[in-house]
Design brief:
The complex is a heterodimer of chains A (about 170) and B (about 450). Chain A folds into two domains: about 70 residues, NADH-quinone oxidoreductase subunit E (Arc Repressor Mutant, subunit A), CATH 1.10.10; about 80 residues, Glutaredoxin, CATH 3.40.30.10. Chain A has eight helices and five strands. Chain A has a five-stranded mixed β-sheet, covered by helices on one side. Chain A has about 170 residues and is α+β, with helices and mostly antiparallel strands. With about 450 residues, chain B is an alpha/beta fold. Chain B has 19 helices and eleven strands. In chain B, helix 14 runs antiparallel to helix 17. The radius of gyration of chain B is 22 Å and the shape is globular. The chains are: A alpha+beta (about 170), B alpha/beta (about 450). The interface between A and B is large, with 54 and 61 residues. The complex binds flavin mononucleotide, iron/sulfur cluster (SF4) and FE2/S2 (inorganic) cluster (FES).
Chain lengths: ~170, ~450
């Protein structure tokens, strides 16, 4: 474990590795790979996105082949394999949300920011993504900020406030 | 959203104080963990416990409605290593009940899982939590810490010889991980691609060990069932449809939200609880069990009661209890286009009929919606679904097919109008107004 730590030190901070250790401890001792999803999230939080090198570093730390970690990183939608803006906004446009304005909310953000889905504003501040059902359809329109903060009932006024709050 | 209205609250009793009533102290004050204590102190046998769950006719709340007690009884007795897994991957469009269950009352799910662990002889459990609800994942972890500190989790729980520990696994955006074997693969740190069945998880589950997997609401119901007695629970609902159920009502109602009602409650009553139709407009259609369930026209739905049997008789499924309400401002072609896109996007790609078929469905519905439909397209869509249903590893292919077939079946003239006139039957301005996003006049 120690040699791996030194090997990785330029890649992930000691604090990140500590968080990963906490995840590893949730699984049986011979099932470290189970922590790969959480470890990739921790790495993404720290680096902003997941480069091939970061993914390989995570794989090395968990003792799994880099390709196996890459498969996971490319399978799940919320991993960013390309750099994103400081604020990644994901708007749910699935049908239940659309019935209460999900698509209109996305259109509104597009117009305000001058970007389409999967684009980043020139100042590197915002990236816009289209999301699938977030399990919050009763609060539609909903959007997610940087994967972790869910915003509910996002009508024009609330969207304006959110965008203004993002520095 | 906290609790608005309910009939016979069980699962939602703890929701009354919103975010202020979720902690261990609050749960204990409501009688929480009393059932775990009773099971352990009375040394209830595993068989008696499973028999009690069977008697309640609790059916799985994750979508398939499989009898829970029966599922538990499939677990091999002798196996040394077994698991209990909770499915909080809630990604079925329209469903948002498990999120609120863990938000307002996480300990009922924890207690249910511990009791399930006792019943099937597992020492370890995992709760797989949907990627998009990080705040809920955090709360659940906090609740686990509380339960551990109080001695409800860990070795020799409450001085008994039963040991069980429980951990949360956070997803990261993949609908297919809601499918139970995709979920197990995902906990193992792999792509969430479903496994061939058989073998079923009860024989070959997490890490290849016998595993019981249930939905969050299923586990959460267990302490309440034991508390009131299986028979009383069953009698709350109707025969073969025991107990109460959470319904997530979304779409064109005045008060979208979760409503707990006894099985067999008329749909009309549920609609009334949700505040009725938004703007007093006319009901057009309802998807009664999450986006994978066939759509039903208004008149059929108004005659249904909310239980597995009534909805099945009407030609749909109670599914996850997600009730998607659509009024007359909805263009059914556009609605279907969005759902078909979802299944195309979320197919894991292992099976050719699903991977290719879901793409075909989306592209053909897309071209109809965008004025490029052809006269033969509706037959084509039905033929594509014929080649998908029942021919794949998991039920996502069927889930993609059901909406297509049912939308065309019940709203054929709207599709035909689209193909002939290259535009929506419902005026786009009317559609736009329906969402309530634009203030009247501002649009
Ligand atoms: C594509 C697909 C998605 C599913 N999504 C969920 C889900 O989000 N939550 C859930 O509990 N069950 C989901 N299921 C059903 C599970 O496979 C499984 O039947 C369920 O978790 C069993 O729990 P229960 O018996 O308590 O209902 C899904 C099934 C399929 C085929
Ligand atoms: S049916 Fe679709 S989602 Fe399910 S395993 Fe096959 S390809 Fe994957
Ligand atoms: S459809 Fe948007 S959260 Fe469910």
């Amino acid at each position: 474990m120690n040699t791996q730590n030194t090997l990785l030190s330029p890649e992930l901070s000691a604090e990140a590795l500590k968080k990963i250790d906490r995840e590893v401890a949730k699984y049986p001792a011979d099932q470290k790979q189970s922590a790969v999803m959480a470890a990739l999230v921790i790495a993404q939080d720290e680096k902003g996105w997941l480069s091939k090198e970061t993914i390989a570093a995570v794989a090395g730390y968990l003792g799994m082949p880099p390709i196996a970690a890459y498969e996971v990183a490319s399978f799940y939608n919320m991993y960013d394999l390309q750099p994103v803006g400081r604020y990644k906004l994901t708007v749910c446009t699935n049908l239940p949300c659309a019935l209460s304005g999900g698509v209109h909310a996305a259109d509104y953000v597009k117009e305000k920011l001058g970007i389409d889905f999967n684009e980043t504003t020139p100042d590197g501040k915002f990236t816009l993504k289209e999301g699938e059902c977030m399990g919050a359809c009763g609060d539609a329109p909903v959007m997610l900020v940087n994967n972790k903060r869910m915003c509910s009932f996002m009508l024009p006024e609330q969207i304006d406030a959110l965008l203004a709050e993002c520095k | 959203m906290a609790l608005i209205d309910t009939i016979n609250p069980l699962l939602t009793t703890g929701w009354a104080r919103g975010d202020a009533g979720w902690s261990l102290k609050d749960y204990e004050a409501r009688g929480g963990y009393a059932q775990l204590k009773r099971v352990l102190s009375s040394k209830m046998t595993q068989d008696d416990l499973i028999a009690e769950v069977k008697k309640s006719v609790l059916r799985g709340r994750g979508g398939a409605g499989f009898p829970t007690g029966l599922k538990w009884s499939f677990m091999p007795k002798a196996a040394p290593e077994k698991y209990v897994v909770c499915n909080t991957d809630e990604g079925e469009p329209g469903t948002f009940k498990d999120r609120d269950l863990l938000r307002f009352d996480p300990h009922s799910t924890i207690e249910g899982m511990i009791i399930a662990g006792y019943a099937v002889g597992a020492k370890r459990g995992y709760n797989y939590i949907h990627g998009e609800i990080f705040e809920i994942y955090q709360r659940f972890e906090e609740a686990l810490d509380q339960a551990r500190a109080a001695g409800y989790l860990g070795n020799n729980i409450l001085g008994s010889d039963f040991s069980f520990d429980l951990f949360a696994h956070h997803g990261w955006g993949a609908y297919i991980c809601g499918e139970e074997t995709g979920l197990l693969e995902s906990i193992e740190g792999k792509k969430g691609q479903p496994r061939y069945k058989p073998p079923f998880p009860a024989n070959f589950g997490l890490y290849g060990k016998p595993t019981t997997i249930n939905n969050t609401e299923t586990f959460a119901a267990i302490p309440f069932i034991l508390g009131m007695g299986a028979e009383a629970y069953l009698n709350l609902g109707k025969p073969n449809n025991g107990g109460t159920k959470l319904f997530s009502v979304s779409g064109h109602v005045n008060r979208p939200g979760n409503y707990e009602v006894p099985m067999g409650t008329p749909f009309a009553k549920l609609l009334e609880m949700a505040g009725g139709m938004r703007g007093g407009r006319k009901l057009k259609a309802v998807i009664p069990g999450g986006s994978s369930a066939p759509v039903l026209p208004a008149d059929v739905m108004m005659d249904c009661t909310m239980d597995y049997d009534s909805i099945a008789k009407a030609g749909s499924m109670l599914g996850s209890g997600a009730v998607i309400v659509m009024d007359e401002t909805v263009c059914m072609v556009k609605a279907l286009e969005r759902l078909s896109y979802f299944y195309y996007e979320e197919s894991c790609g292992q099976c050719t009929p699903c991977r290719e078929g879901s793409g075909w469905l989306y592209r053909v519905v897309h071209r109809i919606e965008h004025g490029q439909g052809r006269a033969e397209d509706l037959d084509l869509l039905n033929r594509v679904t014929d080649n998908m249903m029942g021919k794949t590893i998991c039920a996502l292919a069927d889930a993609a097919a059901f909406p297509v077939r049912s939308f065309i079946k019940h709203f054929k003239s709207e599709f035909e109008y689209h193909i002939e006139n290259k535009k929506c039957l419902v005026d786009p301005e009317v559609q736009k107004m329906g969402s309530g996003f634009f203030k009247a006049g501002a649009a």
